[in-house]
Amino acid sequence: MNKSAYLEAMAITSWQVRDTQVKPYQVIWDRDGELPQADPLIDTVLRLIDVAREECDFDCEPRKGKQIVWDLRRHKVRPRTAWLVSEPLAALLCDSEAKRALWAQIWQWREQQSQT
Hints:
Blueprint: H1 3-9, E1 25-29, H2 39-48, E2 56-59, E3 67-72, E4 84-85, H3 89-94, H4 96-115
Parallel strand pairs: 1-2, 1-3, 3-4
């Protein structure tokens, strides 16, 4: 048995170079899991606030040292430091009022950025 097959049989993963790209932004959401049909919405919202998806970590809890750009949790926690705060993804996909509220926040954020 060769070495890699032996390690694989023992469920030991092979060594990999760590991703050294620092992702300065974070999108936080509930543990419901990612909804694949929400990808276009996520990409559009991030593009509107001038953030690339590759610059974001998607997690359920805020991480120290990362700017929260979008809070999609059902129960918001203080202090609210996110650029955008909206309903969870499932609600955004089917509720036009939730989308309007998100759009209003994006519009306000863009107005603030154009004034600075």
